[in-house]
UniProtKB/TrEMBL annotation:
Keywords annotated in UniProt: Manganese, Metal-binding, NAD, Oxidoreductase
Domain Isopropylmalate dehydrogenase-like as annotated: residue spans: 5-349
Family: Belongs to the isocitrate and isopropylmalate dehydrogenases family.
EC numbers on record: 1.1.1.83
Organism in which the protein naturally occurs: Hydrogenophaga aromaticivorans
Cofactor needs: Mg(2+); Mn(2+)
Name assigned to this protein: D-malate dehydrogenase (decarboxylating)
Superkingdom in the source lineage: Bacteria
Reactions accelerated catalytically: (R)-malate + NAD(+) = pyruvate + CO2 + NADH
């Protein structure tokens, strides 16, 4: 029987609640499958580790992860530590260290979810946003001079490389091609950002020639927010820069009902390194430690993790169980207007998955 080595990194805040819930659900899906098992290793990196050691993860942290089959991540962000330290010291270190350049963010309105757009039917909103995840506005290039003085200046340079844009564009076209509608919208801002974004547009046109069966268009990022609200059914696959997609995907999650539901995969498409799966939300300081976090975003991320491992049957069964649970309002957490706890939602998903024996007997 196959055993997949999975690293879990809960991180901070509600990450410490939803990642153990995700592990429980992954154990249940393995128990109910006959073909594979998981070997988990947990890493307690994050804000608490920082308070003890002065860093978010050890210097050789990437080496502990390098040979895993996948990583399940929670959130980096601690109320007492500046956000740029927690983000750059943990999540970005892993994303950049393992060159996880494609960040994939599916959005759908799941059964039973009361999404805010009253004119939008569930079938009108079925998107995947591809976020460039290695450079762009979050390249880390920049600096501050004359700190605290009246002449102080600071820059964060948007750095795009031809190789970096070509690979994420090709990934997005390929993903669009694999979906039924074969439709890609390239998000841009080349009207205002006349260097990097103009190159981005040129590369989109160039790569599109490799995919003659994909229909594609361009949309300026600000107009794209309005289109997501007003004409959601005209979108399918989207590709955007690191910053633009960061913002658009939180909007997408909210349009689909809640930030607590949305999943993501930080993917190394070449599979040189492990890919990392996580809910898109952060540490949620307002509800952390109370057992109230919605674990669905993490469970859906586990579906993506299973697909990445090639366990498509298990992925489909887990997604089915998640949808059965969202369809039941008594199993909605507070972000969806319900009263259910993280533990109740987790138990309900595990119960639906059953065991291999139960499945054989049924
Ligand atoms: P957040 O996602 O933590 O929370 C935004 C709002 O959504 C809060 O009201 C929160 O309660 C709610 N929410 C989020 N996830 C939920 C869930 N699963 N169930 C129920 N409600 C949920 O965003 P924020 O408040 O901007 O950030 C808090 C911290 O998290 C910051 O330190 C930030 O840097 C960090 N962060 C980390 C990541 C990451 O690690 N990938 C992503 C976003 C934010
Ligand atoms: K996260
Ligand atoms: Mn974000």
């Amino acid at each position: 029987m196959k055993t997949y080595a999975i690293a879990t990194i809960p991180g901070d805040g509600i990450g410490k609640e939803v990642v153990p819930a995700g592990r429980q659900v992954l154990e249940a899906i393995a128990d109910s499958s006959s073909g594979f098992r998981f070997a988990f290793e947990n890493f307690d990196w994050g804000g608490d580790y920082y308070r003890q050691h002065g860093v978010m993860m050890p210097a050789d942290g990437l080496d502990s992860l390098r040979h895993k089959d996948a990583i399940l991540f929670g959130s980096a962000g601690d109320p007492d530590i500046p956000d740029h330290i927690t983000l750059w010291g943990l999540r970005l270190k892993i994303c950049q260290g393992f060159d996880q350049y494609a960040n994939v963010r599916p959005t759908r309105i799941l059964p039973g979810i009361d999404a805010p757009l009253k004119r939008c039917k569930p079938e009108d909103l079925n998107w995947v946003i591809v976020r460039e995840n290695s450079e762009g506005e979050y390249s880390g290039v920049g600096g501050r001079v004359h700190q605290g003085h009246p002449i102080e200046a600071a820059t964060d340079v948007t750095m795009m490389t031809r190789a970096g844009v070509e690979r994420v564009m090709r990934f997005a076209f390929k993903l669009a091609q694999s979906r039924p509608r074969k439709l890609l919208t390239v998000i841009t801002k080349s009207n205002a950002q006349r260097h990097a974004m103009v190159m981005w547009d040129e590369i989109a046109l160039q790569i599109s020639k490799e995919f003659p069966d994909v229909t594609w268009d361009k949309e300026i990022v600000d107009a794209a927010t309005a289109r997501m609200v007003n004409r959601p059914a005209t979108l399918d696959t989207l590709v955007a820069t690191n910053l633009h997609a960061d913002i658009l995907s939180d909007l997408a999650a909210a349009l689909a009902g809640s930030l607590g539901i949305a999943p993501t995969g930080n993917i190394d498409p070449e599979r040189r390194y492990p890919s990392m799966f996580e809910p898109i939300h952060g540490s949620a300081f307002d509800i952390m430690g109370k057992g109230l976090a919605n674990p669905v975003g993490t469970f859906w991320s586990c579906v993506m993790l299973l697909e990445h491992l090639g366990e498509f049957d298990a992925a489909q069964r887990l997604m089915g169980a998640i949808e059965q649970v969202t369809a039941n309002p008594t199993l909605h957490t507070g972000d969806l207007g319900g009263k259910a706890t993280t533990a109740q939602v987790t138990q309900a998903v595990c119960n639906l998955l059953g065991t291999a024996e139960q499945r054989l007997a049924a």
